[in-house]
């Protein structure tokens, strides 16, 4: 398979050369070397700055789904009540994951081209009195960005933990873990951080640690060992030192650029992408741009095309974008302008190629 010359898939994103360099070095055993634990602590501090939190940050070897599963299993027992706030594939999927653990789940559901309505969520939370409220910040398959501050306040009001998937948003848009009262914040390395899909991270509040201790879940994805393991120099498995080194490089790059500038860069390329799509006559999804994410743009497959045909035509010109999932499969395609791909020159080239492809048919 040839590499894309215009990589605009919504993750895994392209890995910048300084980050790739971290994987080309030899490392000793992370279990034995003080240097590794110092790096781990440094990465925790960098992520705290990016995520605006004083909470603990745990960093695990594994793809981002490890964070989603591990956080659920660590705070839930069979029969616990979970209110899943859902407006897309991942929001509804998290509810199903909780059901598989044995939780009693109710879903506050919204259409895929909407974001959650806090009034409805508050009404259901007060009635159901959940132990855990779950939400997704950026629904990558449908390109929406939810508002989280009021949802966090609702969870706190009913005494529930607030569990948030910000895998596809953190680092590209503002995430304020403490201000939004997020107890469990979930992050993966392959989106805005622009690493391979080999690290999963979780922000853990003091309230969440209390519940984790009560539940006592044990497993590869358990959060409990990470509360004291790094300080005790005793981890539950041999960590991926190369990936941690790459994370440190990526996080420092974001902070050195300045988070405000990073957020502005993502907003600008997103606005440009959507303007070009409208000019081509391509319908955006969602149509309401105010709820669209700065990290990914979703659009409807144009009339006269199937998704496989459009995908093949773009690939033939070196451009990679993504399809979608669930009810949107075959109907929506996605342009990932996040992290290393949130560059105007790259997005301009991509839009030029898409315009050329669409113009090749009468």
Task: Describe, in plain words, how this protein is organized in 3D.
This protein has 362 residues and is α/β, with parallel strands linked by helices. The strands form 4 sheets. The chain has a 7-stranded mixed beta sheet, sandwiched between helices. Strands 11-12-14 form a 3-stranded antiparallel beta sheet, covered by helices on one side. A two-stranded parallel sheet has the order 1-13. The longest helix is centred in the last third of the chain and has 21 residues. The radius of gyration is 20 Å and the shape is globular.
In a few lines, what is going on in this structure?
By secondary structure, the protein is an alpha/beta fold. 40% of the residues lie in helices and 16% in strands.
Note the overall shape. globular
What is the structural class? Answer: alpha/beta
The number of helical segments is 12
**Number of strand elements:** 14
CATH topology of the largest domain: Aspartate Aminotransferase, domain 2
Number of domains: 2
User: What percentage of amino acids are in beta strands?
Assistant: 15-25%
CATH architecture of the largest domain: 3-Layer(aba) Sandwich
CATH class of the largest domain: Alpha Beta
Biggest sheet strand line-up: 2-10-9-8-5-3-4
Main sheet: strands, sense, barrel: 7 strands, mixed
Question: What number is the mean pLDDT?
Answer: 97
Q: Name the poorly predicted regions.
A: none
CATH H-tier superfamily of the largest domain: Type I PLP-dependent aspartate aminotransferase-like (Major domain)
Distance, first to last CA: 31 Å
Helix/strand order, N-terminal first: EHHEHEHEHEEEHEEEHHHHEEHEEH
């Amino acid at each position: 398979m040839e590499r894309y010359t215009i990589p605009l898939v919504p993750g895994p994103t392209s890995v910048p050369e300084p980050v790739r360099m971290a994987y080309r070095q030899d490392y000793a055993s992370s279990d034995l070397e003080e240097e590794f634990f110092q790096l781990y602590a440094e990465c925790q501090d960098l992520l705290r700055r990016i995520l605006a939190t004083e909470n603990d940050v745990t960093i695990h070897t594994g793809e981002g789904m490890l964070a989603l599963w591990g956080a659920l299993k660590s705070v839930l027992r069979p029969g616990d009540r979970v209110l899943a706030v859902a407006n897309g594939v991942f929001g509804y999927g998290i509810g199903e994951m909780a059901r598989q653990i044995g939780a009693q789940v109710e879903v506050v559901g919204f259409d895929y081209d909407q974001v959650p309505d806090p009034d409805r969520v508050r009404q259901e939370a007060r009635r159901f009195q959940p132990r855990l409220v779950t939400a997704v910040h950026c629904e990558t398959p449908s390109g929406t960005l939810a508002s989280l501050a009021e949802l966090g306040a609702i969870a706190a009001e009913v005494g529930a933990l607030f569990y948030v998937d910000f895998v596809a948003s953190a680092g590209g848009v503002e995430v304020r873990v403490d201000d939004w009262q997020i107890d469990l914040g979930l992050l993966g390395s392959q989106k805005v951080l622009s690493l391979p899909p080999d690290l999963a991270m979780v922000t853990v509040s003091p309230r969440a640690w209390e519940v984790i201790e009560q539940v006592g879940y044990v497993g590869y994805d358990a959060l409990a060992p990470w509360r004291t393991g790094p300080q005790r120099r005793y981890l539950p498995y041999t960590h991926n030192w190369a990936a941690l080194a790459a994370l440190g490089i990526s996080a420092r790059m974001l902070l050195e650029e300045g988070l405000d500038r990073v957020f502005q860069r993502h907003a600008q390329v997103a606005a440009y992408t959507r303007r070009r799509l409208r000019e081509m006559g391509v319908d955006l999804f969602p149509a309401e741009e105010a709820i669209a994410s700065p990290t990914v743009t979703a659009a409807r497959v144009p009339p006269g095309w199937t998704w496989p045909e459009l995908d093949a035509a773009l690939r033939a010109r070196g451009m990679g974008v993504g399809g979608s999932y669930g009810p949107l499969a075959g109907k929506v395609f996605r342009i990932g302008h996040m992290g290393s791909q949130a560059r105007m020159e790259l997005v301009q080239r991509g839009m030029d190629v898409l315009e050329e492809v669409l113009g090749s048919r009468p």
